[in-house]
Structures are given as C-alpha cells and as structure tokens.
Amino acid sequence: MSRMTDTWILAAQCPSILGTVDVVTRFLKEQHCYITELNSFDDRLGERFFIRAEFRPELDAFNEQSFQEGFERRAAEFGMTFELTPPAKRTGAVILVSKADHCLNDLLYRYRTGQLPLDIKAIISNHPDLESLASWHDLPYYHLPITPETKAEQESQVLDIIEDTGAELVILARYMQVLSPRMCELLDGRAINIHHSLLPGFKGAKPYHQAYEKGVKLVGATAHYINNDLDEGPIIAQGVEPVDHAHYPEDLVAKGRDIECLTLARAIGYHLERRVFLYNGRTVVFGN
Amino acid sequence: MSRMTDTWILAAQCPSILGTVDVVTRFLKEQHCYITELNSFDDRLGERFFIRAEFRPELDAFNEQSFQEGFERRAAEFGMTFELTPPAKRTGAVILVSKADHCLNDLLYRYRTGQLPLDIKAIISNHPDLESLASWHDLPYYHLPITPETKAEQESQVLDIIEDTGAELVILARYMQVLSPRMCELLDGRAINIHHSLLPGFKGAKPYHQAYEKGVKLVGATAHYINNDLDEGPIIAQGVEPVDHAHYPEDLVAKGRDIECLTLARAIGYHLERRVFLYNGRTVVFGN
Amino acid sequence: MSRMTDTWILAAQCPSILGTVDVVTRFLKEQHCYITELNSFDDRLGERFFIRAEFRPELDAFNEQSFQEGFERRAAEFGMTFELTPPAKRTGAVILVSKADHCLNDLLYRYRTGQLPLDIKAIISNHPDLESLASWHDLPYYHLPITPETKAEQESQVLDIIEDTGAELVILARYMQVLSPRMCELLDGRAINIHHSLLPGFKGAKPYHQAYEKGVKLVGATAHYINNDLDEGPIIAQGVEPVDHAHYPEDLVAKGRDIECLTLARAIGYHLERRVFLYNGRTVVFGN
Amino acid sequence: MSRMTDTWILAAQCPSILGTVDVVTRFLKEQHCYITELNSFDDRLGERFFIRAEFRPELDAFNEQSFQEGFERRAAEFGMTFELTPPAKRTGAVILVSKADHCLNDLLYRYRTGQLPLDIKAIISNHPDLESLASWHDLPYYHLPITPETKAEQESQVLDIIEDTGAELVILARYMQVLSPRMCELLDGRAINIHHSLLPGFKGAKPYHQAYEKGVKLVGATAHYINNDLDEGPIIAQGVEPVDHAHYPEDLVAKGRDIECLTLARAIGYHLERRVFLYNGRTVVFGN
Fold it and tell me: What EC designation does it have (chains A, B, C, D) (predicted)?
C-alpha cells in the first residue's frame, strides 16, 4: 500500500463502456509494466469509469514520452483523460493560514519527515503570527493582511505567488477568509480546504459553536475541494469524534483540532498520490 | 455500571448554586443509602445542575414514601425537581413502526432478553406487514392505516392506545409519518425517534439519498426526542459509519440499518435508566 | 458496491508475475463481460496475486461452461486457481450454537430479510435452548449434547449433517466447544468462528473476564476461519468498542454482544460474496 | 469540561463504606467551595472508592493549608488518601526518546500551545538525533548513549536528571530501551510509556511486524504506567485504527504514528488533570 519509490501512477477516467479496464491493463502489460496496485470504479449511476494503477516498468528502455504518446492513442478511443505521475514526484504547494497553527504545524511535520511528498513553495497568511514556524522549516512566509477594501488586491498577490512558484496545489489550513468567486474559479480542483464540521452540517462561521447550540453528540471535520459555493465543494475526507453535554464550545474547538489535522493530512495524501478523482461535483477516492 | 437489581435511582435537576451536590449526597447518607453510581454535571453556561445517583438502602426500614417526602423538603430549598425510580422498574412503552422491521426486530430482541427493561404495551403501524413479528413476541399489534384525510383520526387512535395502556414512553422505530403539532406537544419529552442521518445534516425525507448526492464520507443516525420542529428535537445519541464513493443510495440504506438499531437502542437504554435530562432544548446524558 | 442481481463473480489467485491482471480482464473483454466491480492485490512479500471481478455478460449467448473452460486454459499458464460464482447464488450453511442466542438471532434476521445470501440447512446445538428461535424461522434444529465421553461421536453426527445437507459453510455463532483436530482439518477454510476478543489478545475461555482483569480500555471481537490452533485461525474481520473502569465483566459481556453480531455478520457477508482469499495462514479481504 | 483557570482539584480514594461521597462534598460545601466538576466511582469488586472534584472557592479567605489540614482530619476517618492540586499547576516532566520523533514533536506542540500543562525540565535520548527539535523549543537535551555495559550508569544519569530537576512525571515517548527493574521501581506510578500495539497483544519488540504476521484487521497503541513487567503496567488509554491485507509492516508503522501520538497525549492529559487513579494494578480514569 505504501508507494514504492520506483512506481509510476496512471490515473484515468472516461465514460462507462465495455473494455475500459482492458484498455489500461493490456497497455501496461504490453509495455512490460508490472502493476503493483490497481483500483477501479465503474459508477453505474454516473455512467463513468475511474481507474488508478501503480506500476513498475520492468524494462530499462521504459520511456515516459513514448508511454504517454502510446497510451494517448488508446485512451482517445474511449474518450479517456489520464495523468501519468513519475516516481518520487513532489507536488508544489502553497499553504494559506490565518492565526490557528495546529493544521500548519501538523502539515510541516509530515512535510519535514517525508510523509507527505510536498514541495512547499510558500506559506501565506493574513496575520504575522506563524512566521517563526515557517522560518524553522526554512520556508518563505508572506504576510498579506486583508481588509474588505484590500481583499481583491490581496487575492491578486496570493494568486501571483501561486503562479510565480508554479504551485499545483493550494492548501487552506484553517485560512479564515472566504475566497472570492474569481479565486474559487481559478483554483478549481486544486485547492483543498479543511472545514471544522461534518458538512453539510454547520456551514459557515463558528461551526463548533453551532454544534454546541444544537447539542450534537458527534463533531467532525471535512476536507474538500473549494468551489464557488461556500463549504459546498466536493468532499475528500471526513473525520469524527464523540462528544457530550460537558463539552463547551471551547472544548469542541480543542477536541476538534486533532480531527482537523488528521482529516486534512489524509485528504492531501490522497490528492498527492492521485487517489482522488473529481467528476460532477463528487469525488471518487481510492483510499487506504 | 450495569445496574444492580436492588438499586434505586434518584435523578434531579435545579439551578446552579452552592450546595447542590451536598443536598443530595447528605440526604442519602442520612438515610443510610449506599451510593453505587454517581453522576453530576454543573452547566456553567445554562447555570443548571443535574445529578443522578444509583443507591442501595442499607436498612430494612427503607420506605419509598418517607424517602420521597423527606427529600421533597430538602429539594424545595434548591428549586430542585427530582424523580425516584425503584429497582426492577420496567417502563411501559408503545412502539410505532411502518414497514421497515430492522429497528423493531432489534428492540424486540433486547426486550425479550431483558437487555432493555421495557414493558411493551402495544406495537402500532400504519401497515400490516410486521404483525407476525409482534405475534411471535406475544405483543398486541394495531394496524392503523393513515391517509391525509384520516391522519387526525388515526393520531387520536394512537393517543388512545398510549393513554389506555398507560405507556410512559413512545418509540418511533422508523415510523415514516410526520406527527402533527398536537401529537408532538402531547408526547413532549417522552417520545424517542430514530432519524437516519447525522442531524442537523439531511433532515426530512430520504436522508441516505441526500447523503449520496452530497458525496459525504460518513453516514449516521440520530436518536432524539421529538418536538414540534421536524427532526430538530433534543439529541440523545448519534452513531456513524464510514462510507465511500462506491456506496450507492441502497448501500447507504443497508449500511445504515445497523447504526440505526444500535443508536436507537442506546438512546432508549439511557432513557430507561434515567440517564437523560432535558433542559432548554438540549440533553444531558450520563452515558456508559 | 451492492451486488447486482445479474452479476457473476470471478475470484482468482496465482503467483505474482507480469500479466496477471491482463489475463483476467482481457478474457472478460473478449467474452463481452462488463466489469462492474474489480479488486486486485499483488502481495509483494508473499509474491502472490489476488483478483476479484464482478461482471455482467452483455451477450445472451453467455455460457457458464464455456466461460469456465475457456478461462481454465488461460489461467493454467499463470498457475492461477479460480472460482466462478453465478448470480443469486445462495451458499448452503450449517450454524453451530450453544446457549447464547445473540449471534444466531442476528444471523437469522439477516437471513430472513435476504441481507445474507445464505441457504441455512440446519442449526445444531449442544443445548436445547434455541429450538424455538429456529422453529420460528422454519429451520431444522438438532440438539446434540456433548460430554467428554461423547465428543467424538457428537462431532461425527455434526459432520454427517454437514455432509448430508451439502453445506459449504459452517458458522460457529458462539459455539462454546473446542473442535477436535480432525474436525478442524475437515472444515479447513470453510468454517467461520466468532471469538469475543481482539485476537491475539485473550484467547481461550472467558475473554471478557480476562479483559477486565487486565484493565483494557477497548474490547472487541474477531471473526476468523478455524484451524487446528485454538483461536489462531486466519482473521477475516475485527470490531472494537471503548470501555472504562466502570465496566465489570458482565458489562463487557453485554457490550460485546453487539460487536460480536456485527463482526460475524460482516465476515460472513465477505465470505459469501467471495471477497475473502486464504493464503499462507492469512486473508486478503476485498471489503466494502 | 475544560478546566477553568481558577479551579482546584481534589482527588481521593479509600475503602468502600457508607458516607464516602458525603465526607468530600459536605466538606466542600462547608468551605464554600463550588463544585464545577465531580466524578466518582465505587468499585464493588475491588471494594474501593475513588472521587475527583474540581471546585472554585467562593470566599476570598480560602486558604490551601487550612483546607488541607481540615480535610485530612475528615479523610482519616475513612482511611482516605487524597491530593489537592492548585489552579494553573504545571507538572514538571522529563521526556525520554530515542530516534523516532513523532510523539516528541506532538508533545512539544501541545506543550508550546498550552494544551498540556507541562513544565518540561529535560529531554533525554540515547541518540543525538532530536536535539534540534528540543533546541527550537528552548529545552535542554541530554544525549546519554546506552550500551549493555553502560546501561546501569546511563540509568543513574537519567535518574539524577529526574531528581535534580524535581520532575514529577517521566514520559517515555517511544524510548526504545527496556528499563531495569530498579528504574521501574523508582518510577512506579509516575512514568508513562506508549507501546505501539493493543496490549496485551504484541508485547515486546516490533509489534507492528508481529501484527502483520498475524494478519490482524486493527492496530493500535497503548499508554500505560510502567512497572517491572515489560509492557504489562496499568493501562491508561488505548487507540485503534482499521487496517487490511494491503498494509505492509512499514504501512502499519506509518499508520500507527498518529494513534501513538493521540493516545500518549490523551493519557498524559488525564494524568496531569489528576483524572487517573492507580489501585491494584489497574486504573480508574475519569476521562473526557
């Protein structure tokens, strides 16, 4: 299950028709690629097929470009889109935070120890508080304050950093700002947020306080791709913890921190290993 | 934790002031009652105190009436309301069902084996399907069909049965009818419903289908007292199970059955053992 | 995920070499069989490959025997063993019980409602207690008492019933007898037991009492194939529940019942849907 | 549930006799101490009573010494031992580690953010690797290598540091050394270890590898007080995660890290808040 250092990933999706598995696995066989992990899902309601293969080329002559071109021809017959990911790929990422540091601290630990194959390009915050944490990990920290008046400009600065660094992934690690529709659109499918409730319950501000008011016996966290509908983007992962009447709002906040960290880290790990597929506002996640 | 066959329960609540614990425990000591289990909670936001004691009288001379009268005087000073429950008390109950039998089957098993100290007075359904299940357990079954036109009359019949049998508790074990406001009011605080979602998410009809549409990664069930606000009554217990993209609505329905049974049984158990306190639209539950 | 009523299952295993996936999926394509669910696992430590496909023949001309024979030739090249399971297959089973009825009650409910595609041939017990439960489900009940002197004879009677009824699966639903080595051998790979602990912790008798003595904070249950080593057979599924100091042994027994039922039912469901593979004393389980 | 900054803790235990609750709560009432949280447990098998009260003195005249002396007289009648803990108490602690940094990193985060009221006096390791982590938190780091020959001497050095710093608690945060019997004895009841398995399963070395061999479907971690019997000390907390056949030993190691961190942090939190009572080789834990 742990990804080997020498395996490639092929992730693909297409409409459901006869032969979708075969077109992938036959090609891998022909190319002398040994499949080390294989997942597929045929969505009979969405009539959509998803497949992910980890494989190890058995011939020294394996060539990325010719594999890519060769498979393109086969995939085209099925209307299949695909992505090929080389071994040891580290995904460039920008992290957005505000003042709360628990998710950032957790992500940086996993980054530092190689648990998450990230190449963190920048940490951006609307507050100065977390700079020293970034510094200790030798990461650039941009303090970009935000006010109603400067919001558009601040977002442009954020987008510039994302573009300049070539980051493929944006992580909102408890970034307490609502992104503008334009920003959401530009980051569609490549920005992951952690919301501190079991969505669709308790959207918006202060979800733990909402949970307290409602008297729920479980609280949780939801990692999802952002889209233009606040806290409504496609869900990648959710975590949950039991609570009771004795948990005041601040206890829910405290208890929730660990779930938020774990849920966000899990979602990012899935994304980085190309285990997540987006289609029609929902995700297919070949988790582990 | 398991209740002994010879223990009484004293459950009480009052405003938060100095001496609330002492007034209870001192009286028990004076009455030579040995406390076998004690739970209390002082709600500093609601400024309300809750206490539950299981105790065993050590003197043969223990007398329920004099205990009751003696404690009433003490409790009055604190504005404390309380309930005294004798050993081996079985609570009279009426169960409402429709066609789905999983919760009923589960409850009847726990009833038959003594896991739930219920005295089931009647099973009422708007469908005839579950009569044989009731019969096998030697329980009266009332088939009271319901149409928009007969709803008021049917509810009157249901209420008559509840009243005639002296049932203290009404269990809605997947009863697929919305109760009228009048019915909700009359059953306030003594009717427990199981809703097949993690409330407040997915209220109303077909919650598993809603959950599928939303693409959640967790589904659950919520046991709550009914009130006049559909699926908004005070929550007693919640259960949860992980799911993924491969769970179609009918899979969620199937997976949810076990959680519904367990969550409803847990809530009823808490209610019967006087572990649940209602205050201000929320519950305090001294669970185990 | 829920199995369609018109899908076949192909389950196979063989040594790990290039082309193991391809040999299966190519054949299915050639036979115009549409794959609705596909799972595979290549065990790089055990150097063993496992695959399970659910598929729907798209041609009316689909013929079981010719599929079987055709695939046998392909499989032979890979040293692959396989099993083909037709739609709507119900597996013949014999259930062994003693006095505790919770697992039996749960299984019979799932059997009656079609949740488990079982064809229960007989219920055998060393006690008479559960006969009425069997009767209500119109199932034959054999009361075969056991003493140290009659153990061999009783086991022969049990084996006779299994053989006479053609049962493929034997379920030990809290059967409180240690099977003889001969019995274990004869039932190798087709008898599932539920043990009321998280194996390998607390093997043998009275595991909840052992758990209490040890002061654990979690209890659980383990469903496993029986083998000749008491409570050491290959594990199929495990379930767990948190407990605390206030749970006396009888509370653990009570709390454990639900986990035992759920864990056993889950393991049987996996087995019946050919999701479990046995190899080298371990299982591969393509769960859901 | 979250401890207020102005509350004291009274934790006590004694033999089970009539009046044990009353002697505590009556005294608190007389001293005008408002109980904000109360937990008690009467162990009917061990015939032992445990109580923990958080309280807030309502009079300015509250005096620790006179409270202590006054309660000592009352407690003596019941053979009750007790401990009084002032508000804002931070417990002095020494942390032992080897090379693995996940638990240390997690503890230091919770220490830095005040989630765990620790006063970390020193970090001691038999390896130099984690010094920079200690430095970033401005904590002294002692690299005390260990060989079979120097084990006794190294332990003496460790004990000296514990004694010199006045540390009340020793945390073994994945310290991969077996402590000598003398060391265990000296640290009895005040050293918490995290073992990476669900004890009593998989004691000793390489528990995840043992778990892989056994093919379990759940792995976990156990936080316990050390005693002279390897991995057999009284359990404080346990955590668990589901796994499957696709988890190789290194995957179990990776997956287990989060559970280890959470379980150790939970146990330490309970210990620091005086929620853990030791008696007869078992714990009573008034968790939250």
Answer: 3.5.1.10
Which residues of chain D have a CB within 8 Å of the CB of C200?
201-202, 214, 216
Closest residue to A258, CB basis, from D2, D136, D262: D262
Is the CB of C29 less than 8 angstroms away from the CB of A19? Answer: yes
Is C21 within 8 Å of A34 when comparing Cβ atoms? no
Residue among B155, B210, B223 nearest B185 (CA): B155
CA distances from B30 to B57, B60, B67, D31 (A): 11, 14, 11, 20
At what angle are helices D249-272 and D102-112 packed, to 10 degrees?
A: 30
| Distance of alpha carbon A40 from alpha carbon A33, whole angstroms | 18
Rounded CA separation A17/A245 (Å): 52
Question: Which of C38, C109, C116 should one mutate to test binding to chain B, selecting the residue with the greatest count of B CBs within 10 A?
Answer: C109
Which residue, D11, D15, D13, D10, is CA-closest to D44?
D15
Q: Residue D37 forms beta bridges with which residues?
A: D54
Instruction: Choose from B3, B38, B39, B55 for mutation: most chain D CBs within 10 A.
Output: B38
pLDDT in tens, chain B (288 residues): 566 678 999 999 999 999 999 999 999 999 999 999 999 999 999 999 999 999 999 999 899 999 999 999 999 999 999 999 999 899 999 999 999 999 999 999 999 999 999 999 999 999 999 999 999 999 999 999 999 999 999 999 999 999 999 999 999 999 999 999 999 999 999 999 999 999 988 988 899 999 999 999 999 999 999 987 777 899 999 999 999 999 999 999 999 999 999 999 999 999 999 999 999 999 999 997
Surface of C (9-48) touching D: CB under 8 A: 41, 43-45
**Cβ B36–D21 below 8 Å, yes or no?**
no
| Residue C2: Cβ-neighbour burial (10 angstroms; 0-12, 13-18, 19+) | middle
Q: CA nearest C2 in A: which residue?
A: A44
* Rounded (10°) angle between helices B207-214 and B249-272: 120
pLDDT the model gives residue A1: 55
* Confidence bin at C6 (pLDDT 50/70/90): confident
On whether any CB of chain C is under 8 Å from the CB of D198, the answer is: yes
Burial of B127 by CB count in 10 Å (0-12 exposed, 13-18 middle, 19+ buried)?
middle
Residue C35: its chain A contacts at CB < 8 A?
20-21, 40, 42
Query: How close D285 comes to chain C (CA, Å)?
Result: 7
| Chains contacting chain C through 3 or more C-beta pairs under 8 A | A, B, D
Complete DSSP assignment for B208-277? HHHHHHHT-SEEEEEEEE--SSTT-SPEEEEEEEE--TT--HHHHHHHHHHHHHHHHHHHHHHHHTT-EE
C-beta neighbour count of B216 within 10 angstroms: 27
**The pLDDT of residue B3:** 61
Whether C4 shows a pLDDT value over 70: the answer reads no
Backbone angles phi, psi at B270, to 5 degrees: -60, -45
- The whole-number pLDDT of residue C245 equals 95
| For D203, nearest residue in chain C (alpha carbons) | C201
d(CA B274, CA D265): 33
> Domains (ranges, CATH) in chain D?
8-85 (3.30.70.260), 91-285 (3.40.50.170)
Choosing from B60, B129, B231, B244, which is the catalytic residue? B231
CB-based contact, A110 to chain D, within 8 Å: no
Question: Are D36 and B26 inside 8 Å of each other by CB?
Answer: no
Mutation target vs C (from A7, A18, A50, A288; most C CBs, 10 A cutoff): A18
pLDDT digits (tens, 9 = 90+) for A173-202: 999 999 999 999 999 999 999 999 999 889
The structure tokens listed for A110 are 């996993």
Note the pLDDT of residue B171: 98
